[in-house]
Design a protein that fits this description.
three-stranded antiparallel β-sheet, 5% strand, disordered N terminus, 9 strands, mainly alpha
Length: 724
């Protein structure tokens, strides 16, 4: 037998299961465009077949039985991970909170709507220590209910039931979160190369929380919110309070909701730091196979119960940590506090003086009592003037606090689920909440052809019709299911004034379309989309192809009272490669911004390509620029963009202003101009393959049909009423 030590490379299988970064295309060529963001969650990763319908499965779910099972679980302590005080409530709440709390309003990403906490990096974040145990405690229930209950729903529901089991009257709950089966690679968690790197790395000025890098919300890599010990681990409640305010704002919460959530989250449960955090084993993603998905093994004594180590802080906040009461505010305001170190060496606040009977009991032995504790963020609720006023109001009105928290918890755990029309289950609240972006039902019964004929007589150009419909629909974000054409919020503040919507042109188009909507008693939203469809049909006809763009009536018109202006501001497009527009130059390249927008809209790379090609020749560029309009027949839905882009009779040359000239090799004349966005479809090998496909002589009609199909997808992205 050959001695393998004498020769290398004789392993009989291909290497690459443990793929290193050095083996990726983008590592060989760092400037290469990475399309992974558009290709994630491929059906090949999903064990459920294409016919699986979670909403149909939910109809079979016995919610009452599930609720009973979860209530029983809360006090059904298991030896392998015993519950604090015999109640898993605090652990389950933290699990649900840390799933939902990753949501940020800037791009709508994060949140608990996908069950993403099961995968890296979230399953191994420093802030999520021991949540691997919480999810494993839920496994028998998930196993029992199977496909009728997603992990995403179960994780959030467990937290809600935990609160109910400890005495809180919940505001409600909706099922309907579908699981993913692969990590969400599209979420940017920060540029740091190590966990818990100093906050300075994501702030221009750490003294000014508003300078935190967008779209981030948490103050450090690996944290859900803020550092509980203080800014960069240095206690200072006022500075921490400022970070809390900015972080919660970026997670769509106002000051009252922030106080309610902070206090409500710390009314129950405890922190764990009774040991040495440095001796914990590796996180789940780095642990050995024998750990079977568990991480952070603790060799100190029992390693669990009173010896558990998670955050490093140690202690409960209230006298009765398994009971929903007003104990947090009473403890906070009825004592003077001083800084101490936990057994794990973390900064925390403890009362200078406290009666023995006011101390919480030990998690294992009720005859032993320990000092309560507060984090630096908790102390901010007392020392920040605005937070203090709200806290005192809640301290003196327990019912108001309970109601405010229940509503804030509901918002926290449902913020990324989209409008109320998507909610499912017996406990769905009937109230319309402004953060749900309510839209009234629209008229579905009218003569569509008559409306189109009236629009055709209006004098609007193809470009004006298509552009307005696009601008109305492009705000849709698949991340949190907000935005889109439904509601016609493009005519309301703040959207009507966005630079990307060309307010002057938009005002002109709306002044023509709104009377038509009133004439036929239909929504302006439907009228805008119908006009866009008509423009596409006319452009196709100009290319010699007769088509009818499918249309689904029934959109409604939102009002200003239904619109939370502040929460819509983050939806403003700062770049739109589809319309060849940048608000200003950014560090990120235009093509990367295009991929980000494409992913948020739920489009594939091929759909992105066909839209770009069609939008260019139709003439929808921002401010009517000619960049990328590779045709002499603007306004016709031809495949000319791809034909001319792939024509070797042209030379491409950069100009001093960041644009490009496309010059004829035959006569030396400049035929077209272009941006990076245009030329990337010829320079990138993947995009060029799509461009060549649509440039083929036999794909002229295929191009039009694919454009129409993708156009309809964009126009209907927010039509959740069309999905069973």
């Amino acid at each position: 037998m050959e001695n393998n030590n004498s020769k290398q490379g004789k392993c009989p299988v291909m290497h690459g299961g443990n793929t290193s970064a050095e083996k990726t295309v983008t590592n060989w060529w760092p400037e290469a465009l990475n399309f992974d963001i558009l290709h994630q969650h491929d059906t090949k990763t999903n064990p459920l077949n294409g016919d699986f319908n979670y909403r149909e499965e939910l109809k079979k779910l016995d919610v009452n039985a599930l609720k009973e099972d979860l209530h029983a679980l809360m006090t059904d302590s298991q030896d392998w991970w015993p519950a604090d005080w015999g109640h898993y409530g605090g652990l389950m709440i933290r699990m649900a909170w840390h799933a939902a709390g990753t949501y940020r309003i800037s791009d709508g990403r994060g949140g608990g709507g996908t069950g993403n906490q099961r995968f890296a990096p979230l399953n191994s974040w420093p802030d999520n220590v021991s949540l691997d145990k919480a999810r494993r405690l839920l496994w028998p229930i998930k196993k029992k209910y199977g496909n009728k209950l997603s992990w995403a729903d179960l994780i959030i529901y467990a937290g809600t039931i935990a609160y109910e089991s400890m005495g809180l009257k919940s505001y409600g709950f909706s099922f309907g979160r579908e699981d993913i089966w692969h990590p969400e690679k599209d979420i940017y968690w920060g540029a740091e190369k190590e966990w818990l790197a100093p906050s300075d790395e994501r702030y221009k000025n750490v003294e000014d929380p508003s300078t935190m890098e967008n779209p981030l919300a948490a103050v450090q890599m690996g944290l859900i919110y803020v550092n509980p010990e203080g800014v960069n681990g240095k206690p200072d409640p006022l500075k921490t309070g400022a970070q809390v305010r900015e972080t919660f704002k970026r997670m769509a919460m106002n000051d009252e909701e922030t106080v309610a959530l902070t206090a409500g989250g710390h009314t129950v449960g405890k922190t764990h730091g009774n040991g040495d955090a440095s001796i914990l084993g590796p996180a789940p993603e780095a642990a050995g196979v024998e750990e079977q998905g568990f991480g952070w093994s603790n060799p100190h004594k029992s390693g669990k119960g009173r010896h558990t180590v998670t955050s490093g802080l140690e202690g409960a906040w209230t006298t009765h940590p398994t009971k929903w009461d007003n104990g947090f505010f009473e403890m906070l305001f009825n004592h003077e506090w001083e800084l101490v170190k936990s057994p794990a060496g973390a900064w925390q606040w403890e009362p200078k003086s406290i009666k023995e009977e006011d101390k919480p009991v030990d998690v294992e032995d009720s005859s032993i009592r320990h000092n309560p504790m507060m984090t630096d963020a908790d102390m901010a609720m007392k020392m920040d003037p605005i937070y203090r006023e709200i806290s005192l109001k809640f301290k003196n009105d327990f019912e108001a606090f309970s109601d405010a928290f229940a509503r804030a918890w509901f918002k926290l755990t449902h913020r990324d689920m989209g409008p109320r029309s998507r909610y499912f289950g017996p406990d769905v609240p009937q109230e319309d909440l402004i953060w749900q972006d309510p839209i009234p039902e629209g008229n579905k019964n009218y003569d569509i052809n008559a409306v189109k004929q009236r629009i055709a007589q209006s004098g609007l150009s193809i470009s004006e019709m298509v552009t307005t419909a696009w601008d109305s629909a492009r705000t849709f974000r698949g991340s949190d299911l907000r935005g889109g054409a439904n509601g016609a919020r493009i005519r309301l503040a703040p959207q009507k004034d966005w630079a990307g919507n060309e307010p002057e042109r938009l005002s002109k188009v709306l002044s023509i379309l709104e009377p038509i909507a009133h004439e036929f008693n239909i929504s302006i939203a439907d009228t805008i989309v119908l006009a866009g469809n008509l423009g596409v049909e006319q452009a196709a006809k100009n290319a010699g192809i007769n088509i009818t763009v499918p249309f689904a009536p029934g959109r409604g018109d939102a009002t200003a009272e239904m619109t939370d202006i502040e929460s819509f501001e983050p939806l403003e497009p700062l770049a739109d490669g589809f319309r060849n527009w940048l608000k200003k130059d950014y560090i990120v390249s235009p093509e990367e911004l295009l991929l980000d927008r494409t992913q948020l809209m739920g489009l594939t790379a091929t759909e992105m390509t066909v839209l770009i090609g069609g939008m260019r020749v139709i003439g929808t560029n921002h401010n009517n620029t000619d960049h990328g309009i590779f045709t002499n027949n603007k306004g016709a839905l031809t495949n000319d963009f791809f034909v001319n882009l792939t024509d070797m009779g042209y030379a491409w040359e950069p100009t001093e202003n960041g644009l490009y000239n496309i010059r004829s090799k035959h006569d030396g004349k400049i035929k077209f101009t272009a941006t990076r966005i245009d030329l990337i479809f010829g320079s990138n090998s993947i995009l060029r393959s799509y461009s060549e496909f649509y440039a083929q002589d036999d794909n002229k009609e295929r191009f039009v049909n694919d454009f129409v199909k993708t156009w309809v997808k964009v126009m209907n992205a927010d039509r959740f009423d069309l999905v069973d």
